[in-house]
Amino acid sequence: YAFSGAHIKSLYIPSSVEFIGAGAFDSYKLESIKVSSNNLVYNSKENCNAIIETKTNTLVIGCKNTIIPEGVVYIGDSAFAGCSSLREILIPSSVTTIGKQAFSGCGGLTEIVLPNSVEFIGFQAFHSCSQLSDVRLGNGINAIEADTFGYCINLTEITIPATVKKIDRMAFS
């Protein structure tokens, strides 16, 4: 959380950066992200406005203008946390996992549609998405973890597929 809450609008990661900790750029004002094409650890392929760990295809940091490219398999822990200006996000069919608190505090997000490829959604992944009103889960999900949609106070519609076997404590508190 090195720059958590900072008013950074634009971010450039040079080739020298080899490690970025969870939530390092947790900033609700972040609009633009670019990674040096010479960076061996991270990329922002297809000008996606995100930081992607090349080796694992994990989206580490996103912002309100992120377009998740096909090939990303994991949306990392706290990747979009606190991005209250995020209004919409399209999750490609390559994504299998959404990390804990990945979209926590994305107060402007109104709808989420998860493709059938998503098998796991982490703890508090959509916690405090205060404008989230419509959630459609794909058939890959078999459990809704604790507090996944906690404090989503405008949630009025959710489609839970028949593949779900477990809804954990406070999943929709």
Verbal overview:
With 173 residues, the chain is an all-beta fold. It has no helices and 13 strands. It has strands at 10-13, 32-35, 42-43, 50-53, 58-62, 74-75, 97-98, 111-113, 120-121, 134-136, 143-144, 157-159, 166-167. The strands form four sheets. A six-stranded mixed β-sheet has the order 3-4-5-6-7-9, with no helix packed on it. Strands 8-10-12 form a three-stranded parallel β-sheet, with no helix packed on it. A hairpin with a 6-residue loop joins β3 (42-43) and β4. The radius of gyration is 15 Å and the shape is globular. The model has no long low-confidence stretch (mean pLDDT 93).
Q: Could you give a quick summary of the protein structure above?
A:
It contains no helices and 13 strands. The strands form 4 sheets. The chain has a 6-stranded mixed beta sheet with strand order 3-4-5-6-7-9, with no helix packed on it. The protein has a 3-stranded parallel beta sheet with strand order 8-10-12, with no helix packed on it. A two-stranded parallel ribbon has the order 1-2. Helices cover 0% and strands 22% of the residues.
Mean model confidence by pLDDT: 93
Rg from C-alpha positions?
A: 15 Å
**Treating each run of at least 4 consecutive H or I residues as one helix, how many helices?**
0
Taken as a percent bin, the fraction of beta residues is 15-25%
Class computed from helices, strands and strand pairing? mainly beta
The rough form would be described as globular
Q: Give the end-to-end Cα distance, rounded to a whole number of Å.
A: 26 Å
How do the strands line up in the largest sheet? 3-4-5-6-7-9
The succession of helices and strands, N to C, reads: EEEEEEEEEEEEE
Low-confidence stretches: none
Task: Count every beta strand, where a strand is a DSSP E run of 2 or more residues.
Answer: 13
Sheet with most strands: 6 strands, mixed
The level of helicity is under 10%
